[in-house]
Amino acid sequence: MSDGERAVTPAPAPADDGRVPAAPPVVEATGIVKRFGPTVALNGARITIRPGETHALVGRNGAGKSTLVSVLTGLQAPDEGTVTFGGEPSPRLSDRDAWRQRVACVYQKSTIIPTLTVAENLFLNRHDHGRSRLISWPGVRRRAQELLSTWSVDVDPQTSAGDLSVEQRQFVEIARALSFGARFIILDEPTAQLDGAAINRLFDRIRDLQQQGVTFLFISHHLQEVYDICDMVTVFRDAGHIVTAPVAELPRTELVAAMTGEAAIDRLQARPSTLDRTAPPALSVQALGSEGAYDDVTFQVGAGEIVGLAGAAGSGRTEVAETVVGLRAAQAGEVEIAGNRPRPGSVPAALAAGAGFVPQDRHHQGFVPDMSIADNATLSVPHRLGKNGFLSRDRRDLLAGNMIEKLAIKTPGPELPVSALSGGNQQKVVMARALADDPRLLVLINPTAGVDVRSKEFLLGKVEETAQTGTGVLIASDELDDLRMCDRILVMFQGRVTTETARGWHDHELVAAMEGVDLNA
Amino acid sequence: MPETVLADAAAQSVGPGHKRTALFGGRIPLARLRDLALVPAIVVIAVVGQIVNPVFLQADNLINVLQTMSEMALLVLAQTMVLIVKKMDLSLESTMGLAPGVAAWLVVPAGAGHGLGLLPGAWAIPVTLVVGALVGVINSLLIIRFGLNGFIVTLGMLIVLRGILTGISGGQTFFQLPQSMLYPGTAEWFGMPASIWICLALFAVAIVVLGWTSFGRSLYAIGGNVDAAKAAGIRTDRVLWTVIVTGSVLAALAGLLLSGRLASVASAQGNGYIFTVFAAAVIGGISLNGGKGTMFGAFCGILLLFMIQNVLTLAGVPAQWIGALNGLIILVALAISRITGGKVQE
Description:
heterodimer; A: alpha/beta; Rossmann fold; 17 helices; B: two-stranded antiparallel sheet; two-stranded antiparallel sheet; 2% strand
């Protein structure tokens, strides 16, 4: 197991107990306890990460993953327990430079400053100074270029960081972390906002760096990714450590069982189709076209039918779904929702015609973070809350109470601001709003992005239930789990619908279609 | 080699976005050119002004334009720094009146107006600057230390400071200012009023500091993403203190120049300036959302506004209509900078 010699997918380390590791672990945390007021975020948690491995940390929302990350990166001191790096005790909390030389974290939320150039972001607060003690911009640019090419990140250091794609931004953040000397990098849900191709590129990059001796701690909700990229996996549940094992020795069912504490139900069972052919279609899209986004898109969603709209990022699937609900207007073609033709580009018209909608990015379009659950859930249905524009608080709370119950939103009451909820529960609020007016057509864009396994199953189960009541469902996503329950899947590639498959597809077929690869060629 | 493959794939995914960022083979980043967006507009106004009235481009007139704008330009400089760190300081216009007002109050001999005559005339300039710094410290204390909303704090300060000036002056104007207070606003250095030199020099310093020092760049980092700035090891609170206090001192200096030029401190000195200051900064490409814009752009913004006003005066527009036209100019200039800048202003 010498450095630089590791195979791309290394064989899991033997798990026999008598083995003496060649080097001390990159990081070892033992007996970590961390309390926030009455809540215990970590209770005797531990993790050991060995040099050169890619270690997965999985657990449901609230299992203590984020708290462990902030302890490992020195943002918070544990109440009890110790953290060691390479066998040495961790530096003082105030010594940021020492921490940065040991560990770096690429968060879901960017720590890049969008208004500055890539070069400046890389060397922020440690610019090159010329003889006049002023910043030497050519020097900064040159060093940035060197750094980026050392780690083969193909980004122009002169670009404004705000213009970077999510993927490039992550590469830049990884390069910056490496430039501090850290060889242990925590990736906090790095794939949440990436499409399939970008995820593959990220994984290639991780494998490259792993060969160059960089150790990763990988946090993800997508178990498939854990099996694709990681050597070891540690499962946290209820603020504590449950199991650490080589990935290859932990079958998927056991992993999920470790996360949930109970055997997961097998969701792959075929769902009986609830398509009602006698009722008018919930959605009919005719020759829809929009310059630079999609072209000549025609399809129907029957009442009670679940249709998937698959495709990589930039394939036009999101744009088509947004056009259906009126967030965008098409330049050509028609959208008909449950027999009505709403005015193009008008969300109220689409809602009035019978659409419910879960937007792409819940933080961005889904909810108003500081408003209560009740207000958020009933935002689109003021007409249900009272007459002539006056709102009845009682009726609102009653309606919201029903929704909270129906969607099993974990909250002390409907007054809580949505920002106080976990990701999964926030998404349930968004879903509640989409279902508030008993829609005839439910449009979902990436409905389970950044949501834990349990909430995901719950949300998808809710979608099935909704379809059973005769509502047509359109799911625009590239997440295979979202698409499994669909009656039909339309695959979009570069703005056109290229493939249509009925249920019973294989993963690799669908992925190939999304990536525009012909398996038979 | 897997790396080459990876780089190619990444390059493809970048696509068109890659080309826009640089011109002339990457030597001049487009961001730099955006700073120069107002230069063509300034040239156009100069040409129009010359056609309207041949006096426009004569040295006397240009010096006149520069001198009348020098005081407000200093406020624009101060506000630009504050806006870049994503704060706002509305109280600058009151500081501009109060700081020299307090100095005059303490220095002007008793009997003449509301003066107390407590200090000799030489103290006037130090007192002015200290009052400015003090206002900045109070603002910083409330905004940074106690975490109050900057907009409302400085709105409150705007009213309080104006009220204090009205109180100490009895609503009247201080005359008989000491020689030291008159000097900065009236002296001529190398054939140009001192206030123009001071203004230009401070802008030059500000351009260098914001563009070429770690301190200056930390302003942009804080305005762009304060958490990221903290993570990069920038002492954000210290930088914010420095910016707000410096801004207030600059406002006091602007007040000193104006008082010197007018040889008086009116109780309404600086009243209403802040709107023009904001307009100039935004026209000059400073984002109200922080982290964006340059000092040079801000200077172009205020210069453009004053040149247009001058052209209107030379064209014989009745004085009663200048106010309405000023507002209109601001709106039109914003619209033009929206078109040339190409981005939605927030």
